[in-house]
């Protein structure tokens, strides 16, 4: 049974890392992204997908969520923030002659966010609050691929987060 489990694991790893090259996904390609972010307002988690619309350009979407607790003036607050964003990225590999396992990109994002909080006050006038709106941002990032699977580091401003780290699966 142990040999069968080892063989099955080796086959799965082989499929994930087989017949793929690094670099941008190119026209017609797709990639799934997931990970965690870093920000001053909790730790966001995200999942998204990008689609190759040109050899050097992708369009995609992302959903992110975070929740954190805060204490201000001896009152406890529970914050919840979620957002849904579209993005466009230009991939610099061809123009800067960046080697194939790397994917270096920059772009813009736009979307909707919702921020709410509840507090431990018992006053009806300030039990909680909500805020929603349009979020805009820029991002700069890089991926390093190990076959179909890559690691991703991205820095950006805007509503989503100050940056994020995660994994990418190219198919």
Give the helix/strand layout.
Layout: H1 2-17, E1 30-38, E2 45-54, E3 57-72, E4 75-91, H2 93-96, E5 102-119, E6 128-146, E7 149-156, E8 163-170
Antiparallel strand pairs: 1-2, 1-8, 2-3, 3-4, 4-5, 5-6, 6-7, 7-8
How is this structure best described in words?
With 171 residues, the chain is mainly beta. It has an 8-stranded antiparallel beta barrel with strand order 1-2-3-4-5-6-7-8. About 6% of the residues have low confidence. The chain is built from 2 helices and 8 strands. A hairpin with a 6-residue loop joins strand 1 and strand 2.
Descriptors:
about 60% strand, mainly beta, about 170 residues, Porin
Task: Sum this structure up briefly.
This protein is mostly beta strands and 171 residues long. It is 12% helix and 61% strand. The protein has an eight-stranded antiparallel beta barrel with strand order 1-2-3-4-5-6-7-8.
What structural category characterises the helix and strand content?
mainly beta
Could you say how many structural domains there are in total?
1
Q: In which order are the strands of the major sheet placed?
A: 1-2-3-4-5-6-7-8
CATH class: Mainly Beta
Beta-strand percentage?
over 45%
Could you tell me the mean pLDDT? 83
CATH architecture: Beta Barrel
Quaternary form: single chain
Question: Total number of helical segments?
Answer: 2
* Strand count: 8
Cα separation of the termini: 31 Å
Q: Measured on Cα atoms, how large is the radius of gyration?
A: 20 Å
Return residue spans where pLDDT drops below 50 for at least 5 consecutive residues: 10-20
State the order of secondary-structure elements, H for helix, E for strand.
HEEEEHEEEE
Helix share bin:
10-25%
What is the CATH topology? Porin
Which of globular, elongated, flat, extended, rod-shaped describes the shape?
elongated
The biggest sheet amounts to: 8 strands, antiparallel, barrel
